[in-house]
Amino acid sequence: MSRIGKKPVELPSGVTAEIKGQTISVKGPKGTRSFTATDDVDLVLDGTTVTVKPRGLSKRARQQWGMSRSMVANLVTGVTTGFKRELEIQGVGYRANMQGKILKLSLGYSHDVNFEAPEGVTVNAPKQTEIVVEGIDQQAVGQTAANIREWKKPEPYKGKGIRYKGEQVFRKEGKKK
């Protein structure tokens, strides 16, 4: 039995859900998102709650049960509060700033890196050493943050690079004489 799948997803005020076949679309103050579940689960809308039930006891049905419930919960969270990933830049001369919709990164290369955010994701640089990625799609926000981090991952000796806020970088000891 899936512990996650058993829990119903509550729809807060201002959020509406509509189920057509295996597709659920959730509309809220930040926008509209939809998810198509597999044929192994049933989506049921009861007023202000959405429940996910497996069709049978096969292994695949039990796997899809918890995953589908999590996806529906992420839809509701996305259209109400949205998702946010924060990155920090460490290193002498490393900085980020916004020029219109393009994020300019100075990361010690011979050129600046121009990063354009995909549709539905907003990227801000409130400080020169901070980057904030926001949006209503958790997967798109996480992937955009990972793409920015990919330009200069934190290195283990001095810790220079782009890291997630609060990320612990394993540091190595340098050469000894």
Could you describe the 3D structure shown?
- By secondary structure, the chain is α+β, with helices and mostly antiparallel strands.
- The chain is built from 3 helices and 13 strands; from the N terminus they run αββββββαββββββαβ.
- The chain has helices at residues 3-6, 59-80, 138-150, and strands at 9-10, 16-20, 23-28, 31-36, 41-46, 49-54, 83-90, 95-99, 102-106, 113-116, 121-124, 130-135, 161-164.
- It is elongated, with a radius of gyration of 21 Å.
- The protein starts with a helix and ends in a 13-residue tail after the last strand.
- The model has no long low-confidence stretch (mean pLDDT 93).
* Global outline: elongated
Order of helices and strands: HEEEEEEHEEEEEEHE
Average of the residue pLDDT scores: 93
Helix share bin: 10-25%
Low-confidence stretches: none
Largest sheet properties: 4 strands, antiparallel
* Count of helical stretches: 3
* Overall radius of gyration: 21 Å
Counting DSSP E segments of at least 2 residues, the number of strands comes to 13
Percent of residues in beta strands: 35-45%
- Alpha-beta content class: alpha+beta
Strand order of the largest sheet: 11-12-7-13
Roughly how many Å apart are the termini?
59 Å
